[in-house]
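Reminder to self: tokens first, then the designed residues, so the page reads top to bottom the way the pipeline ran.
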């Protein structure tokens, strides 16, 4: 109790003190001049004012006054009472205070907390992979940001969405180095990724630098687009374009193509060739009227989606090639909501469960409401009948 009151009193004192002194957070770019105004000071000499600073350059408080000498090339008091730092450095981070007395004798204090920053060069992805292999960990590349302060952070984006390292499919190796003379930071972030089989075939990666100070803009690398292949290539030609055409692969997710009603099936056609071939889809021997594309998504699978699917890759120089056929079918399960390992399963199940619970709660509330209403009606009815009985009795007595 007493401790709480004491803390409260201190908070009050501190906040009042902050209000009086007008605490201000200042950020200054390294190498640029910084001017801090001494509030309440007369604009011209003679002035009664004193600057005190406690920074990485000072051992304790360093005092500067208009009459005194400038402090080397670090700081000096200007004729109007402001403090000038001609070129801010990392060591100038710290607290700056001025106490001024106006001509009428009123004292004003200014209090600044100065933090410095440097904008690093545009981040870059160095050593990017030439292509990625589905199902195995691949090094995508290393993102480098050089010359920033404070350190800040790097993050990777896949198709515009931030990749969260999970130690499994996505992992990141980070390294932070500091330049021995300038004190500026160089960040490295190496991305390892295991592309899902049957996932996107041409993912786009980029990397962003987030500054260590608030309200500073993030910086982005140019995106890189990589190709995901499902098998190792059988030897590349010397000039790179003489790649032998491989068989067209059709990957179905979930494996086996069987889902519970309402599940999702993803068919991905992989035809590793350059330039990428046009891909059309065939169901039960007939072409599907869809725009060409390597992924066929069947959401909310119903009976009409069952059948045999294949894809045809049409390459300008090799002619059409058809994949093996896979069948999509619906599992008839007794219970609802059990899916055979569908990727969307967990999300949908949770949704169904939530809706179920909400629905259940609603029903219970409705039932309770009905019961209460019913009881009231009953009670009213009893009261009415009692009244009429009493009336009857009275009439009988009269
Ligand atoms: C200044 O920064 C400190 C910590 O960095 C923060 O707690 C405080 O709220 C900031 N003050 C203002 C006026 O922004
Ligand atoms: C004092 O002079 C400097 C440099 O001329 C200027 O940047 C600053 O705003 C002035 N301060 C006040 C309080 O006028």
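Designed residues (398 positions):
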């Amino acid at each position: 109790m007493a401790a709480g009151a004491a803390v409260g009193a201190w908070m009050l004192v501190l906040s009042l003190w902050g209000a009086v002194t007008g605490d201000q957070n200042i950020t200054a770019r390294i190498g640029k001049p910084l001017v801090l105004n001494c509030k309440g000071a007369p604009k011209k000499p003679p002035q009664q004012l004193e600057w005190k600073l406690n920074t990485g350059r000072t051992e304790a408080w360093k005092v500067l006054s208009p009459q005194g000498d400038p402090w080397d090339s670090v700081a000096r008091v200007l004729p109007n009472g402001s403090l000038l730092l001609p070129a801010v450095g990392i060591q100038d981070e710290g607290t700056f205070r001025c106490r001024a007395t106006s001509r009428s004798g009123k004292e004003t204090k200014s209090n600044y907390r100065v933090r410095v920053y440097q904008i690093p060069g545009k981040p870059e992805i160095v050593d990017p992979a030439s292509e990625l292999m589905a199902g195995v960990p691949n090094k995508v590349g290393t993102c480098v940001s050089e010359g920033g302060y404070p350190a800040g952070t790097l993050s990777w984006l896949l198709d515009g969405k931030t990749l969260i390292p999970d130690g499994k499919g996505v992992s990141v190796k980070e390294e932070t180095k500091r330049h021995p003379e300038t004190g500026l930071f160089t960040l490295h972030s190496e991305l390892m990724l295991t592309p899902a089989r049957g996932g996107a075939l041409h993912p786009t990666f980029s990397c962003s630098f987030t500054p260590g100070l608030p309200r500073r803009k993030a910086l982005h690398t140019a995106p890189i687009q990589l190709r995901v292949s499902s098998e190792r290539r059988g030897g590349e030609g010397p000039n790179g374009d003489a790649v032998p055409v491989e068989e067209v692969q059709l990957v179905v997710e979930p494996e086996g193509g069987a889902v519970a009603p309402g599940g999702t099936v993803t068919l991905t056609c992989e035809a590793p060739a350059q330039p990428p071939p046009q891909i059309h889809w065939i169901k039960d021997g007939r072409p599907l009227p869809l725009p060409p594309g390597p992924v066929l998504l069947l959401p909310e699978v119903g009976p009409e989606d069952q059948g045999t699917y294949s894809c045809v890759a049409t390459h300008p120089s090799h002619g059409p090639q058809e994949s093996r056929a896979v069948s999509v079918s619906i599992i008839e399960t007794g219970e609802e909501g059990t899916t055979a390992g569908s990727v969307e399963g967990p999300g949908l199940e949770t949704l169904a469960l939530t809706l179920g619970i909400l629905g259940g709660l609603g029903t219970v509330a409705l039932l309770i409401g009905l019961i209460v209403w019913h009881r009231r009606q009953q009670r009213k009815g009893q009261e009415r009948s009692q009244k009429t009985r009493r009336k009857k009795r009275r009439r009988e007595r009269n």
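Residues 345-397 form the longest helix (53 residues).
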